Amino acid sequence: xxxxxxxxxxxxxxxxxxxxxxxxxxxxxxxxxxxxxxxxxxxxxxxxxxxxxxxxxxxxxxxxxxxxxxxxxxxxxxxxxxxxxxxxxxxxxxxxxxxxxxxxxxxxxxxxxxxxxxxxxxxxxxxxxxxxxxxxxxxxxxxxxxxxxxxxxxxxxxxxxxxxxxxxxxxxxxxxxxxxxxxxxxxxxxxxxxxxxxxxxxxxxxxxxxxxxxxxxxxxxxxxxxxxxxxxxxxxxxxxxxxxxxxxxxxxxxxxxxxxxxxxxxxxxxxxxxxxxxxxxxxxxxxxxxxxxxxxxxxxxxxxxxxxxxxxxxxxxxxxxxxxxxxxxxxxxxxxxxxxxxxxxxxxxxxxxxxxxxxxxxxxxxxxxxxxxxxxxxxxxxxxxxxxxxxxxxxxxx
Length: 398
Hints:
Layout: E1 39-40, E2 46-47, E3 132-135, E4 141-144, H1 151-164, H2 166-194, H3 196-200, H4 207-235, H5 242-245, H6 251-279, E5 280-283, E6 288-291, H7 293-313, H8 316-321, H9 327-340, H10 342-362, H11 367-386, E7 390-392
Antiparallel strand pairs: 1-2, 3-4, 4-7, 5-6
Helix pairs in contact: 1-2, 1-11, 2-4, 2-11, 4-11, 6-7, 7-10, 10-11
């Protein structure tokens, strides 16, 4: 409650009961002094000139009222303690006086102090490792990471998030997959109708294939941007809702980064595809396949190099999708963060590939419905870990 500083009839003379200018905000000016000594209340707010002042240099004297803060001993509920459930404390203007009951209790128990949202995280690098840094609205409490990845923690998070929100992640994956297959089929028929020879050729640089690859890439980019946005919301400690997937941020920089990565990937895949065709040839005379050892060795080397470089660039898109970096910043910081955690990220890349190669055929491709969203959520969590961002606090049974 705010004091009424304009109570009439209060002058500079001392109150015989309360002393010279006594109030709940701290010490007042010494009697007869010509300057105000600033004081601080328990919350650290400074009070001095301009606060509860009279017409001159001497502060107003504050007389006792029936307000709860004038109860004997002062009113000090403490930080965040709030008023008692029944409303204001009972007490009169004087000790032993009649109970003050002029106000109704506040709904819900009154003031409850600051919520964690008041100290919510507003940028990376705030706080220290393991420090509680607030939570998003209606979500799980978050903590700041230390830039080192914990693979198993990310894996647990990925599976938990998928099965905690199956309507979005499992059913959504099925719908997105069906939509992508439908669009790809329609584009294939369209290209075949326009230029049958080019559409049937294996030349990736033919006009029909260039257009088909470009349109397909744009569709994939749009899906990736939306899905990663949802994964980052889950990493913020709350369940993603369908409309939130379609409200991505920093789209321009993310699209630019995806375009660069697609062009580089197209060049590399073209080289690998060409070597694959040359490495394996069919001898019509003998009816057997012949392997060109030199070309095969080069192909194998390209595949190994691509696999080794994978952990260094696989997480760039998360930096831009999180609104944290530009396309260039995502490359520089993404490489630095991944290099610091390279052995663990490489191990995860290898093991996840092996698991998917085994599990997906055994489940007749149904495993993709689980592993695809799980892998995106794991990657989002790993990105937050390696970049020193916030992740949900993990509560594990002991």
